[in-house]
From TrEMBL, chain A:
Source organism of the structure: Pararhodobacter aggregans
Signal peptide (from-to): none
GO BP: any one term: glutamate biosynthetic process
MF terms in GO: glutamate synthase activity
Compositional bias annotation for Low complexity: 110-120
The protein's name: FMN-binding glutamate synthase family protein
Similarity comment: family membership: Belongs to the glutamate synthase family.
Record Gene3D superfamilies: Aldolase class I
Keywords from the UniProt entry: Oxidoreductase
Record-linked InterPro entries: Aldolase_TIM, GltB, GltB_archl_type, Glu_synthdom
SUPFAM superfamilies given in the database record: FMN-linked oxidoreductases
Record bears the keyword Transmembrane helix: no
Keyword Glycoprotein belongs to the record: no
Domain Glutamate synthase: from-to ranges: 78-331, 355-403
TrEMBL record, chain B:
Highest taxon of the lineage: Bacteria
Molecular function per GO: oxidoreductase activity
Taxonomic lineage: Bacteria, Pseudomonadati, Pseudomonadota, Alphaproteobacteria, Rhodobacterales
CDD domains named among the record's database cross-references: GXGXG
Protein's name in the database: Protein GlxC
Source organism per UniProt: Pararhodobacter aggregans
From TrEMBL, chain C:
Organism: Pararhodobacter aggregans
Keyword terms: Glutamine amidotransferase, Transferase
PROSITE patterns tied to this protein: GATASE_TYPE_2
Molecular function (Gene Ontology), one example: transferase activity
Gene3D superfamilies with a match to the protein in the record: Glutamine Phosphoribosylpyrophosphate, subunit 1, domain 1
Keyword Transferase: yes
Occurrences of domain Glutamine amidotransferase type-2 (ranges): 2-295
CDD domains in alphabetical order: GlxB
Pfam families in the cross-refs: GATase_6
Record protein name field: Glutamine amidotransferase
Keyword Cell wall biogenesis/degradation part of the UniProt annotation: no
Length: 441, 222, 295
């Protein structure tokens, strides 16, 4: 006798195993999930754009002979001492505290060797990173941990952080495991407590106040240093325009794929716009104010290779910034630690519990034993190599488009593979001269 | 300041402070200007005859700055050391994120006085506004008058001393026992600030430390 | 995001100097708002209706306007052209007919009232003040605004003050976070705003509450409950002005009072040239508290 045929067990798309595991975790702990990293969901990205290249109507540059410059000057508007970089890729702000001292040193070494700048983070400036960074950007954050006028003056630029792409409009919470004695001292906090970070600056709100804050910072530093304003990808047109009106020399725009040391997962995945969607509105704001290329635009959030760099520049950015990619170059999420990731309930590529301070790679930790695993000299060399490769890749593309400077890449050098990317980047869908929202259609 | 540019005033003061000449300077007609006498790095006596705008004496180190009038928002923000004295009132964010030194306000201070303070001592002879000492980390805030709503919300290890009434305490801020060591600290601060008050008249407020590590029963306080 | 100034004179002797004093205050707030500037000035009442209109092509639009309007409403009309603005004076009972006529002609009505005149334009405050000859204007009280536009356009209509009822106007420093929803609620009641600006919604909210029977005080109290976001509002009425800040009170506000006047500003700087400011009582309005000065 035949058995009655049965359907296969069917998993719900809405209530997937992943979703259900989060429901169980929430029910057991009573607190939202906190993690590091940036958005993991798929969003329209640079991969959805392609360069057209040159053939008969345009002429390419000879790959290994003809010059293709990559230098960038940041802070030409008001600062007496603008920052001169050899490559249009900078290292984003990551704090000592969230990262180990060795990791900060490695970032400084790698960036300096490649001719670019690195950036402090929420927790002040360490001697290690100042010493190993030829160009160091000092972040001015709502918490003002470790903020002092001496470090302000020994910085090469000041970045007023209004928001970041992982959490526009949010503060944060760094769990106690990483607040060691040294971190606590730098932040004037008790050891081992959960550090709560404010979402707004304590002494100004809005662009009209920000203008006065910038005046104060310039007065304290003799009008020498470029003032960057970092914004999360929320309302990029307005925020860019207001940063410029408030007096910024440089606008740093961080899309939702941008990383964080520790933020609510719900914030990372559900607030903010994809990096690709942020660039054109920001460039539009600069153009409307007659400030494109006068106030420089640095774009960050999900930059991984030279093609991403070239695409961001083509859409109007002056430079890009990398955080997550730099950590991976140092050795974050490396397969050689797979067995240890598994012990932590994770796997290579997925490890994101950076706030817990148990990073097997010794990067996002303050544990002295784990920290030793990262050799700052070797890791710095890896970062330098990676930055060099990205630059070579970007040059390769620029030359193929006939550009003697990477800044001469234009939106018209691009086409889009998807409707979404076409709409966001305002670049024609491949094979057409149309993108959604294009006037006249 | 009616005739001299802010940049010139600050450059002069900053070089004099750095040169350690310690001469007295007087600024007349401040006209509510912003960022006056900010970023001084060395001993210097500065008197401002009139009222100032935002961020007066910002990030001060070692200098003694007196405002013979009222000060705008963020006076002595992130001060490291030295003494800043305001004879009139101070606007919001007075002494914000200050790491050290003494901010002596003879009049009242507005909202968010001592927000995120990190070691500064603040003495207010009058009253203070709402959300004062929000997330205050270290240092002492002394108020001879009354405090507004949500005093010391999300407080860390700063000590708050209030002589008058407190409209309401913020999350995790509680009244604490005044022990001999606190009387001693307060006595010394009142003396330095030239305040006519006795330490015994004050109540002490501090962190209940229930928000230091997350606990599910405190979720409503976040 | 902006600079606000306000001046309420207690002594009639100072009235001729109102425009002069307000202009200096307004120009001092340029850094806070370089995009556009505006002023509402309350002069003497004559038992007549004043309508301030604006046009980008005043030469053609204002030519023959008074005659055409007089014919339309069947009453005498006088006109005073001030740069891009014109103040039309006519009998009180002609308001509805006059407004219908002006709408037909596509002229922008800046404000209506027995005593209020509103002048606002795109540009630096000093240029705006000069174009309108603000210094020469007298009156009992006035409110000025310099704008740093946040999300809505830099246009004449986007400049403050906003007027949504007779002799009422509102200026704002801050940014409302529920203005789109409020705009829809007001539209359901038949109250329509002309711009995308959040402040206009605030103004319309207050005048709708007053039209429903609330006092100005109750309407301002209502903003604390019904409007979300950050604001310092100053509202002008025929008899004086009111001030209210949101409960978080981040946007600055400072007031000064002497025997001669009550002054309001976003920063103390705006008071530096006021007579007797050295001896004035200077203080900051408390959060979530409504203040009034009325004669």
């Amino acid at each position: 006798m035949d058995k009655t045929p049965q359907t296969l067990p069917r998993q719900s798309w809405t209530f997937s195993n992943e979703t259900n595991s989060e429901i169980r975790r929430a029910a057991a702990t009573g607190i939202y999930d906190i993690r590091g990293g940036g958005a993991k969901r798929r969003v329209p990205h640079f991969d959805d754009l392609l360069f057209l290249g040159a053939s008969i109507s345009r002429y390419p540059l000879e790959g290994y002979r003809e010059r293709c410059d990559t230098s960038v000057t940041l802070g030409t508007r008001f600062a007496k001492k603008p920052i001169e970089l050899k490559i249009p890729i900078t290292i984003a702000g990551m704090s000592f505290g969230s990262l180990s001292a060795n990791a900060k040193e490695a970032l400084g070494r790698g960036a300096s060797a490649a001719g670019t700048s690195t950036t402090t983070g929420d927790g002040g400036m360490t001697n290690e990173e100042r010493g190993h960074s030829t160009q160091l950007v000092y972040q001015y954050l709502p918490s003002r941990y470790g903020m002092n006028p001496d470090d302000l003056r020994r910085a090469d630029a000041i970045e007023v952080v209004v928001g970041q792409g992982a959490k526009p409009g949010g503060g944060g919470m760094l769990l106690g495991q990483k607040i060691t004695q040294r971190v606590a001292d730098m932040r004037s906090l008790p050891v081992g407590i959960d550090q709560r970070s404010a979402c707004r600056h304590p002494d100004w709100t809005g662009p009209d106040d920000l203008e006065i804050k910038i005046l104060e910072l310039r007065e304290i530093t003799g009008w020498e240093k470029p003032i960057y304003i970092k914004i999360g990808g929320a309302r990029p047109y307005y925020d860019t325009a207001l940063a410029v009106k408030a007096g910024a020399d440089v606008v740093v725009l961080d899309g939702m794929q941008g990383g964080t040391a520790a933020t609510q997962d719900v914030f990372i995945e559900h607030v903010g716009q994809p990096t690709l969607a942020c660039i054109r509105p920001a460039v539009q704001a600069l153009q409307d104010l007659g400030m494109h290329r006068k106030v420089q635009l640095i774009v960050s959030g999900g930059i991984r290779n030279g093609a991403d760099v070239a695409k961001a520049l083509a859409l109007g950015a002056d430079a890009v910034s990398i955080g997550t990619a730099a950590l991976i170059a140092l050795g974050d999420n490396d397969p050689k630690w797979e067995s240890e990731y598994q012990k932590l309930g994770s796997t290579t590529g997925a490890y994101d519990d950076w706030h817990e301070g148990r990073d097997p790679a010794g990067i996002t930790t303050q544990d002295p034993e784990l920290m030793k695993r990262l050799d700052p000299i070797a890791a710095g060399r890896r970062l330098r190599n990676y930055l060099n490769v990205m630059t070579l890749e970007c040059q390769t593309i620029a030359r193929a488009c006939g550009k003697s400077h990477v800044h001469n890449l234009e939106p018209e050098d691009l086409c889009a593979l998807t409707m979404e990317a076409a709409a966001m980047a305002r670049v024609p869908l491949a094979g057409t001269d149309w993108y959604p929202g294009k006037p006249g259609f | 300041m009616a005739t001299t540019e802010l940049r010139e005033v600050n450059t002069t003061l900053q070089s004099a402070a750095k040169a350690q000449v310690n001469e007295p300077y007087v600024i007349v007609n401040p006209r509510g200007s912003h960022a006056m006498a900010c970023g001084l790095d060395g001993p210097l006596n500065v008197t401002v005859k009139g009222s100032t705008g935002y961020y007066t004496a910002g990030m001060n180190k070692e200098a003694s700055i007196t405002v013979e009038g009222s000060a705008g928002p963020g006076v002595a923000e992130n001060m490291m050391s030295g003494v800043v004295t305001i004879l009139g009132d101070a606007s919001q964010y007075a002494g914000a994120t200050g790491h050290g030194g003494l901010l002596n306000i003879k009049g009242n201070a507005s909202s968010r006085c001592g927000i995120s303070m990190k070691g500064i001592d603040i003495v207010v002879h009058g009253n203070i506004g709402h959300m004062s000492a929000f997330m205050a980390q270290r240092g002492n805030l002394v108020v001879l008058g009354d405090a507004g709503d949500a005093l010391g919300d999300s407080l860390y290890e700063a000590r708050l001393f209030v002589r008058g009434t407190v409209k309401s305490l913020g999350a995790d801020c509680v009244e604490k026992e005044m022990r001999a060591e606190h009387i001693e600290i307060l006595k010394e601060l009142l003396e330095r600030a030239g305040a006519d008050a006795k330490p015994e008249e004050f109540k002490r407020y501090g962190s209940a430390r229930t928000l230091y590590n997350f606990h599910i029963d405190n979720a409503a306080s976040y | 995001m902006c600079g606000i100034v306000g001046l309420f004179l207690k002594k009639d002797a100072l009235r001729p100097k109102l425009g002069d004093m307000l202009t200096d205050m307004l120009i001092t707030m340029t850094d806070r708002g370089p995009d556009s500037a505006g002023i509402a000035i309350y002069g003497d009442e004559h038992g007549k209706l004043k309508i301030t209109v604006q046009s980008d092509t005043p030469d053609t639009d204002f030519a023959g306007l008074e005659g055409a309007l007089a014919a339309a409403v069947g009453a005498p009309v006088t006109i005073r052209v001030v740069d891009t603005h014109a103040v039309l004076t006519l009998p009180l009972d002609t308001e509805a007919a006059a407004l219908a006529f002006l709408e037909d002609r596509k002229l922008r009505v800046m404000g209506v009232g027995e005593s209020m005149e509103i002048f606002k334009e795109v540009g630096l405050p000093k240029d705006v003040a000069e174009r309108f000859g603000l210094r020469a204007m007298g009156g009992s009280h006035g409110i000025g605004h310099t704008r740093m536009a946040t999300e809505s356009a830099v246009t004449t209509l986007g400049a403050h003050p906003f007027s949504t009822a007779s002799d009422q106007c509102l200026v704002h420093n801050g940014s409302l976070s529920n203005h789109n929803d409020m705009r829809r609620k007001l539209a359901k009641k038949g109250i329509y705003t002309k711009t995308e600006n959040d402040t206009e919604v605030g103004a319309a909210y207050i005048s709708s509450r007053i039209a429903e029977g609330a006092t100005l005080g109750q309407a301002l109290e209502g903003t604390l409950k019904d409007l979300d976001g950050f604001f310092t509002f100053v509202t002008g009425t025929k008899n004086g002005f009111g001030v209210v800040r949101d409960p978080i009170a981040c946007k600055p506000a400072v007031m000064a009072e002497t025997e001669d006047y009550v002054a309001f500003a976003s920063e103390y700087r705006a008071f530096a040239d006021l007579p007797g400011i050295e001896g004035a009582r200077v203080w900051e309005p408390e959060p979530a508290t409504v203040y009034f000065w009325e004669r």
